Amino acid sequence: MLKIILENYISWIGRLSEWTGRVASWLTTLLVVLICLDVALRYVFKEASALLPELEWHLFSLIFLIGAAYTLKHDRHVRVDVFYMRFSPRLKATINLIGALLFLLPFCLLVIDTSIPYIKASYVLQEHSADPGGLPHRYLIKGSIVVGFTLLLLQGMAMAASSLLIIIYGEPEKDRY
């Protein structure tokens, strides 16, 4: 029963992470277009505004925040694999489970918890860019920190669940989490 529940959770979160990964890839395309537009306006037409550079860094932030869970799902985060790559699947799963429980999940919870007061304050103050012509509603980009780290938390829980299944039942299915 536990195995079925964990596999269903892993599958559901995996689909969510795939979807957010596609969103991040489209945001990357949009970011490239915006940067080209910004460069053309600035250097060809000698026009500049605070709006485009701010929008660029907002998109850049969103790409990394919502793309982190996708990156974790596909095991593409930076890691020193000198020893890890030689370990058995059970030992790798044990290391992943311990790492998730001791570091990843608590860190995600810490970031989410500490971000919420800043988002609330930004919303209450209706914070906007200090630059003339900049973006309003700064709380939206601050709120994306919670969204991104919640997605990473959910994917980290799926990784921990997958690791637990490997420890208990042995070899994983391909691309389980």
From TrEMBL:
Keywords: Cell inner membrane, Cell membrane, Membrane, Transmembrane, Transmembrane helix, Transport. It is found in: Cell inner membrane. The chain crosses the membrane at residues 23-45, 57-72, 93-119, 139-169. It is a multi-pass membrane protein. Residues 31-162 form the Tripartite ATP-independent periplasmic transporters DctQ component domain. Belongs to the TRAP transporter small permease family. This is TRAP transporter small permease subunit.
